[in-house]
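Build the 3D complex.
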Amino acid sequence: MTQTISQPALAAPQPRLASRRGGLSLRELAMPLALVLICAYFEFRSTKFLGSRNLSFLAIEVSITGVLALGMFLIILPGYIDLSAGSGVGLIGGIAAVLVFQHGWSAPLALLTAAAVSVTIWALMGTIIVKERVPAFIITLGGMAAFRGIHDLVIDDSTIPVTRGSEQNLYSILTTYYLRPAIDLPLVGLVIAAMALASYLRYRRERQAGEGVDGELAFMHTFIAAQLILLFVLICNGYRGVPLSAVVLGATVLVVYILTRHTPYGRYLYAIGGNEEAAIVSGIPVHKVAIATFALMGVIVAITAFLQTAYGGYSTPDLGNTMELDAIAACVIGGTSLKGGRGTVAGVLVGALIMAALLNGMTLLAVAFEIKLIARGIVLVLAVWADVKLGKK
Amino acid sequence: MAPASESRGPVRQAQGGPILATEALVKRFPGVVALKGVSFDLRPGEIHAICGENGAGKSTLIKTLSGIHPAGSYEGTILVDGKPAAFTGPKDAEKLGIAVIYQELALVPEMTAAENIFLGSEPRRFGGLLIDWERVYVEARELLDRFGLGINPMANVRRLGIGHRQLVEIAKALSKKTRVLILDEPTAALTEQEVKILLEIIRDLRRRGISLIYISHKLDEVFAIADRITVLRDGSTVQTLDAAATDKHQVICAMVGREISDLFPRRAGAVGEARLSVRNVSVSDDDGENVLSDISFEARAGEVLGIGGLMGAGRSELLMHIFGAFGRRTAGQVLLNGQPLGPGNTPVQSIRRGLALVSEDRKRFGLVLEQSIGFNLSLSSLGQLTRTGLIDSMREARRNRELFDSLRVRAPGLSTPVGTLSGGNQQKIVIGKALMTLPKVIFLDEPTRGIDVGAKVEVYELINQLTASGYAVVLVSSELPELMGMSDRILMLSEGRVGGLFTRQEATQEKLLAAAMHPAGEAADLVPSQGVFP
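Done.
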C-alpha cells in the first residue's frame, strides 16, 4: 500500500526552472561590459589610461580597493555593514607610521602591532553587535567618527611618513616594490596551472555527484580568467613589473574565495544572511561566526591601511576618508545583496575594478576632488538601484 | 431557485446564476501550463471547496480570480454576475467585492491587531483628516470577539502566535464589503478548536449571503462546510461534486488519480529504552513569564510520542526549549541518552548530542530559501563533512544525493534553489537536513502542515522507517486524526501543563480534547459535549 502512494505523487508536476548554468545572466554580463566601456571612455579622452605605467598604478589602486571590498563582502554576506572601515584605514595606518617614524620601531613589528590593534577593535565591535545587540550600522557609524578623531590625535594632525629618512622598509615597499619578469612569469604560470587544476577537479567532482555540468563553460571561465591574468602581467612588465600589492590582493582573493566556497564558516555566512533564524535552529554558532567575521575585517582593514598609507608615503589626517563607500559600492556592483546571503568573490573583484578605474580615470582627466566625490556617491546609489531593479527579475 | 424575487437594480441575471465563474481558463508560465482549461462556477451564497494536490493549479486559479494575474496574461474568460470581467489588478477584483485570504499572511508585525485590520481603510473623522482611532479599536474588537478567543485588538501582531495572526487576517477581510471571499488554506495553522470556530464563522457568512471559495487539504473541514467540491488535478478540472452526494474516499481518488487505501500507515515496532527523559520541567519566556509548568514525559527508541494540545498550550515552545532555542528553564531536568541536556544548551550542542528539530515554520526556521537543495541539506552537518578545515565536497555531494534519493525529493537536482520547490518537497529538505546530523531523537513539529495528501503519506512512511531503525520520534500535531493515527503514545498539553498521557489504544477524540482543555487533575470528570467550544 505504500507503493501505491508514491507513484501518483511522482507524477505530480514539479517546479522547473531554467538551468542556472545554462549561460551568463544579464546581470553577470552587465558589469564586465560597464568596465570595458569605462576603460574605453577614459582611453578615448586621455590616451594614457591603458598605458603600462598607468595600468601599473591602477593595479595598485585596485589592490587597495579590492582588499577592503573583499573584507566588506565578508561583513555584508551575513547581513552586517561596516561604515567605520575608511576611518579605520586612516587610524591603523597612522598607528603603524607613528611607531616607525616617531618611535623608531622596526617596520615589521610596527605593522604587526597595528594589525593586532585593528583585530582587537573589530573583534570588540563584533562582540558588542551580537552580545549587546547594537546594530552593526550604528556601532560602525560611531566608529567612523571616533576612529577619525583618534587618528587625528595619534598623528597629531600632522603628516607622518612611513619611513625614517629615505631608506626603504617593509612598510614603504608595499606599494613601491615590483616583481621582475624573472619572478612574476614563473609565478603567473604556477597560478594559472593551479587554477586549471582546481577547475578540472571541480568539474570531475560535479560530474561524479551526478549534476548536469557544462564542461565547456567551466573551461571557458578558466581560460578567460587565465588570459586576463597573463595579459595583466605582460602589461605590467612593460613598466616595472607586477606590483607587490597585486600579489597581496591575489593572496586575499585566494583566502576569501576558499573561506566562502570551501569552509563551513563560509556556508554559515551565506546561511546567516539568507535566514538567520533558520541558521540558529540549524545549529550554526551565529555569534561566533559574526565575531570571527569582524575580527577578519580587522585584518583586512589593517592590510588596506598599510597599502593605502604606503601608497601616499605618509599618514595624513584625511587618509582613508570615505573608503568604505568604495568598498560597499564594489560589493553591490558585483552583485552582493545588502540584505545578505548572496554574492561572489569574482563579482566583488569586478566591482572593485570599476570603482578603481573610475577614480583613476577621473584623476587622469584632472577632475576636481569635489566632483570625484559626487561621482562616487552617484555610482553607489546607481549600483544599489540597479541591484534592486535587476534583482526582481 | 431561491424565492428571491425582489431583484433590485438593473442587473438582469438568471436566478441563482453564478456570481463568479471561469470558462476554459488557460494560464501559461514559461515552460509550464499551470491551468489547462479550468471551468468553475460559484453560486451566490454557497461554500464551494476546491481540492487538489500541491501543483494542481489551485493557487494559480485564485490569483487569476483575484486579479493578481491580470487580464491578458491568461486565455479564457472570467465572469462576474454573468458578465465578462477583465481585472487589471487586485484592486479591480476588490471593487467587485472579491477578497482573498492567502496562506502567507500579510500583516505588519509591529502594528496592533486593530491597526492591521483597518490598514489602508481606516475610519476617518474631521472630514477625513484624522484617523478615528476610537472606531478602529471598537470595530476591531467586535470583529475579533467573534472568534471568542479574547484576542486583544491592542496587541502587537508580533506578539501573537501564527494561529492568532491568521485570525486577525481573517478579521481584516471581514471588515471589508466583500461578496466573494476566497480562503486559501485558512486553517493550516489552527487547532481543532479554532477550526470549529472558524467554520462556524464561515457558515455565518454564508447565511448573510456571502459566497465563499474554500481551499483546504483537510477533507474533514471540506465536508463539514462545503456545498459543492471541485477537484483539480494537473491544472484541469476533474469533477465538481455535490458534497452531500459524495465522500472523502471519492474526493481523494479524484485528487491523486488512484486509490489511497490507508491514510495513516503507522506500523508500530519494538520499543527500546528511553532516549529522551523530561522530568518536571518548567520554562519561562524571555519576558520572564511562565509558559511551561512541571512537564514530564519520555520518548523511547522505536516509538512515536505524539504531543497535542490547543493553540497556546506550549507544544512548539516545549520542543524549542529542549532543543535550546527558546526560553529559560526554571525547574526540572532533561536527559538525552541518559546524560543531562541543559539548562542553557544551544542548538549546536543539542545537535551534537543527537537531537534534531524540524520546526513547524519551515520557511522561517527551516530553510535558506534562495540557496540550493544541497546547501540546505548539509547545513547542519558540515562539521562531519570537513577534512583539515575544508568541506570535503565529494562526500558532501554523496550524502546529499543519498538523502535526495531516499526522500524522493522531486526537483531537477541538488543545485535547485529550495524556494522554487513545493511545500511537500521543502518539508522533505528540512527533514533531510535533520536526518543528516545522525540524530537519536527527532522532533517533528507539524511536519505535514500545508502539504498535500500524497506528500503527507510519504512523511508518515518516513516516520515508520525512522522508528523501525531505532529513532525516537516526537511528533507535534494540531490535527487529531494525524496525532491518533501516527502516535504510539499521546501527550496532551493544556495551558503549559500536562493534560494527560494516553496510549494509542485508549486515545479517543473526546478524551484527547478533554485533556487539552483542562490540565490533569481538573479534567478527570469532565465529559466533553457539544458545549466544549465557547
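DSSP finds 17 helices and 24 strands in chain B.
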